[in-house]
Design a protein that fits this description.
The complex is a heterodimer of chains A (373) and B (250). Helices cover 62% and strands 9% of the residues of chain A. By secondary structure, chain A is α/β, with parallel strands linked by helices. In chain A, helix 3 packs across helix 6 (140-158) and helix 10 runs antiparallel to helix 13 (327-341). Chain B has eight helices and ten strands. In chain B, the strands form two sheets. In chain B, strands 6-7-8-3-9-10 form a six-stranded mixed beta sheet, sandwiched between helices. Chain B has a four-stranded antiparallel beta sheet with strand order 2-1-4-5. The radius of gyration of chain B is 18 Å and the shape is globular. The chains are: A alpha/beta (373), B alpha/beta (250).
Chain lengths: 373, 250
C-alpha cells in the first residue's frame, strides 16, 4: 500500500536534489522569465476555418440578393467556416453562442439589407443596409481574420460605393492585447517544458545510478515513488507558473480576469499530467541521451498542435484530432478561459477532467513500467 | 526480524532459469540457503551471480522454475518480506548529489523509520562504519571505500534478517575488507542470513557455504573446507579453476 509519509520522503528528496544543483535551480527560476520576454515580443501563425455563424434575414429585391451573395463569397473563403443559423436561432441566441465559445464570430444580415442598399444607390432612399458583426475578442488573430474575410466579401459584393451600415461589436475582453492573449499559453508552455525535462532526467538518473533498484528493494512501492515525484514536481510547477504569471503582470501588465485560485488549480493539474507523462516516457529511454530526445518531440508537438501559436481550427481537418491528445491544448484552453474571459470552474470542467484522466493513465503506466528490465 | 513458523531455508531456488534475448543468464539453477549462514555465490564475470540475486529479491521474473524467499514465492511475495530484507546493490546505488546523512535518512524513511528511533539507528551505523566525520559531505565527493560503507549502512538501517550483498568488497582496500568481514560474521552470529556474490574466490573461504556458478549453472556447492577436501586442493580457487576447465561436475 502506498504511504503518504514515504511519498513525502520521496518528495522532500526530489526538492533537495534540485535545490542542491545550482544550475537546475537557476534554470527553474530564470528560464520562465526569459521565456515570457521572448514570446511576449514575438507573434506568428496563420488563421483559417474560424467557426462563424450567420443569420441571413435579408430578402431578395428586384432580382438581387446581396446578403446571399456575401454569404456565397464567405463560403469560399478558407479563413472562415460558416454555419447557417437562419430560422434556427434568434439574433440574441447567436450572440450568446459567441459569448459561450461555440462560434468565434456571428454575422447578422438585416431583413431589408438588399432593398435599402439598392434604393439608396438610386437615390430613392437615405436608409442604409445594416449588417452586424459580433466578434469574440479573446483571440485577436481569429478576430482579425474574420474581420478581414468579411470586409473583403462586402467590398467584392457591394463595391466601394454603398450605403452599408456595418456595426462591429467586440465581445469578451474588449481591450485585449497580443501579450494578454499569449500569456496563458506562455504559462502553460513554461510549465510543460520544465515538468517534462525535470521528471525525465530525474527518473533516468534513478535508473542509471541504480538507486531505483535500491528504492524498490525497500518497503516503498512503485506508487510511493510516482506519487512522491508528482508531489515534488507539482510544487515546482506551481513555482514556475507563479513566476510566469508575476513576470507577465509586472513586465507586460497582463490582467487576469478570472480567479487566481482557478489559475493555480489548472497549473497544478496540468503539471501533474506532464510529470506523469515524463516518468512514463523515461521507461522508454535507457539513458539520458535517449531521454533528451523526447524533449524536443514533446515540445514541438505541444507548440504546433495546442493552439499556442496557431488556432487549432486553422489547421487542416485531418491534423486537428492530434490536438485532442496534447495536454497543453487543454491547459491553454482552460487558462485562456479563466484569464481572458473570467470563466468559472464550470466552464473548464472538461479541461480538468482531461488532466485527471492523463494523470491516472500515466501514473498507472509509470508505476507498471518502473523497475522493468 | 525472524519469520515465525518458518523453519525452512531462507532461500530455495528450484530449477530456475532466466534469459535475456539469446543469452541464458541463469540455467536450471537449484540451490538452498540456510538461515543464519554466510552463503557465497561465486563465479567469474557473467556467471549469473547478479541475475540470481535479482531473481531472489523479486526484481526479475523467472522464465521457468521458482524462487522462495523466507517462505514467500518471488516475485509477487516480495512486498510481504521487504521489511526483513536488506539489499546492497552492485555499484553503490546512492544519490550522489545528496549528502551521506541525507541518503541514510531517505532510505530510513522508505523503511518507515522516523523520529528519534531512526536517528539513533543512523548514528549507530555512522559509528560502526566509521563515517561520522563525513556525514554532511555530498556522496560524489567521497572515496570509493567510503561509498561502499554508506551503501552497506543503507542496507542495514532496518536490521534485516536476510541480507543480499552484491559484490560488497569490490574496489575497497584489504583493511576495509577485513572490517567488513568482521561485521558480516557478527551479523551472522546474531542470526542474520547473508547471501553475497563475489568474484574474489579467495575471499569466499570466509563463507559458511559456497555455490560456484559458471555460465548460469551450478558447478558445485558445499562448505569451503568440504569442497577442498572433495576435489583435493588447498584453496577454493584451485577447486574453481579445475571445475571450470572440466565443465560442469555433477
Amino acid at each position: 500500500m502506498a504511504s503518504v509519509r514515504r511519498s513525502m520522503a520521496v518528495a522532500r528528496r526530489v526538492l533537495t536534489q534540485i535545490s542542491r544543483d545550482r544550475r537546475t535551480t537557476a534554470f527553474v527560476l530564470i528560464f520562465p522569465v526569459v521565456f515570457v520576454v521572448m514570446f511576449g515580443l514575438a507573434f506568428g501563425g496563420t488563421v483559417g476555418n474560424v467557426k462563424t455563424a450567420y443569420i441571413n434575414n435579408d430578402s431578395s429585391f428586384q432580382g438581387a440578393h446581396l446578403g446571399a451573395d456575401m454569404v456565397a463569397k464567405l463560403s469560399n473563403d478558407s479563413r472562415v467556416s460558416l454555419t447557417n443559423l437562419t430560422g434556427l436561432e434568434s439574433y440574441n441566441q447567436a450572440i450568446q453562442d459567441v459569448h459561450d465559445g461555440k462560434f468565434s464570430a456571428a454575422i447578422l444580415f438585416d431583413g431589408n439589407l438588399t432593398m435599402n442598399i439598392l434604393l439608396a444607390s438610386r437615390g430613392l432612399s437615405n436608409q442604409s443596409g445594416v449588417i452586424e458583426l459580433f466578434l469574440d475578442n479573446t483571440n485577436p488573430q481569429i478576430a482579425s481574420a474574420v474581420t478581414q474575410a468579411f470586409q473583403e466579401s462586402v467590398s467584392n459584393t457591394l463595391g466601394s460605393k454603398s450605403s452599408l451600415d456595418l456595426q462591429v461589436t467586440k465581445l469578451l475582453n474588449v481591450d485585449l492585447r497580443q501579450v494578454d492573449f499569449f500569456a496563458p499559453g506562455i504559462m502553460g508552455f513554461g510549465v510543460l517544458v520544465l515538468s517534462i525535462i525535470l521528471s525525465l532526467m530525474i527518473t533516468i538518473r534513478e535508473r542509471k545510478e541504480g538507486t531505483l533498484g535500491r528504492v524498490l528493494s525497500t518497503r516503498a512501492t512503485k506508487m510511493d515513488l510516482v506519487l512522491g515525484y508528482m508531489m515534488g514536481f507539482g510544487l515546482i510547477g506551481l513555482v514556475v507558473g507563479t513566476i510566469v504569471l508575476v513576470s507577465s503582470i509586472l513586465i507586460f501588465n497582463v490582467v487576469v480576469q478570472g480567479s487566481l485560485l482557478l489559475v493555480y488549480l489548472v497549473v497544478i493539474l496540468f503539471t501533474e499530467s506532464c510529470v506523469g507523462l515524463g516518468i512514463l516516457l523515461s521507461a522508454f529511454a535507457r539513458n539520458e541521451f535517449q531521454a533528451v530526445q523526447f524533449i524536443p518531440i514533446t515540445i514541438f508537438i505541444s507548440i504546433f498542435f495546442s493552439g499556442f501559436l496557431i488556432p487549432i481550427g486553422s489547421m487542416p481537418g485531418w491534423l486537428q484530432p492530434v490536438s485532442y491528445v496534447v495536454p497543453l491544448t487543454y491547459a491553454i484552453d482552460a487558462l485562456r478561459n479563466v484569464m481572458l474571459k473570467g470563466t468559472g470552474i464550470e466552464g473548464i470542467l472538461s479541461d480538468l477532467a482531461f488532466f485527471l484522466i492523463v494523470m491516472a493513465i500515466t501514473m498507472v503506466g509509470a508505476a507498471r513500467s518502473m523497475g522493468k528490465e | 526480524m525472524a519469520h515465525r513458523g518458518d523453519d525452512g531455508p531462507a532461500v530455495r531456488l528450484e530449477r530456475i532459469s532466466k534469459s535475456f534475448g539469446p543469452v541464458k543468464a541463469v540455467d536450471g539453477l537449484s540451490m538452498e540457503v540456510r538461515k543464519g549462514t554466510i552463503h557465497g555465490l561465486l563465479g567469474p564475470n557473467a556467471a549469473g551471480k547478479t541475475t540470481t540475486i535479482k531473481l531472489m529479491i523479486g526484481k526479475l521474473k523467472p522464465d521457468s522454475g521458482s524462487a522462495t524467499v523466507l517462505g514467500q514465492a518471488m516475485p509477487e511475495g516480495y512486498p510481504k518480506i521487504a521489511a526483513s530484507v536488506g539489499v546492497m546493490p552492485q555499484g553503490q546505488a546512492l544519490y550522489s548529489d545528496l549528502s551521506l546523512i541525507q541518503n541514510l535518512h531517505f532510505f530510513a524513511a522508505l523503511q518507515d523509520m522516523r523520529g528519534p528511533g531512526a536517528k539513533t539507528r543512523i548514528d549507530e551505523l555512522l559509528k560502526l562504519m566509521r563515517i561520522e566525520d563525513e556525514a554532511d559531505r555530498a556522496v560524489y565527493t567521497l572515496s570509493g571505500g567510503t561509498k561502499q560503507r554508506v551503501s552497506l549502512a543503507c542496507s542495514l538501517l532496518h536490521s534485516p534478517s536476510l541480507l543480499f550483498l552484491d559484490e560488497p568488497t569490490v574496489g575497497i582496500d584489504p583493511l576495509l575488507r577485513r572490517v567488513f568481514w568482521d561485521y558480516f560474521r557478527r551479523l551472522r552470529d546474531g542470526g542474520t542470513t547473508i547471501i553475497m556474490t563475489t568474484h574474489y574466490i579467495q575471499e569466499a573461504e570466509n563463507c559458511d557455504f559456497v555455490s560456484l556458478l559458471r555460465e548460469g549453472r551450478l558447478v558445485a556447492d558445499g562448505e569451503p573446507a568440504e569442497l577442498k577436501r572433495r576435489y583435493g586442493y588447498d584453496t577454493l580457487e584451485e577447486v574453481f579453476v579445475k571445475l571450470s576447465e572440466a565443465g560442469i561436475d555433477g
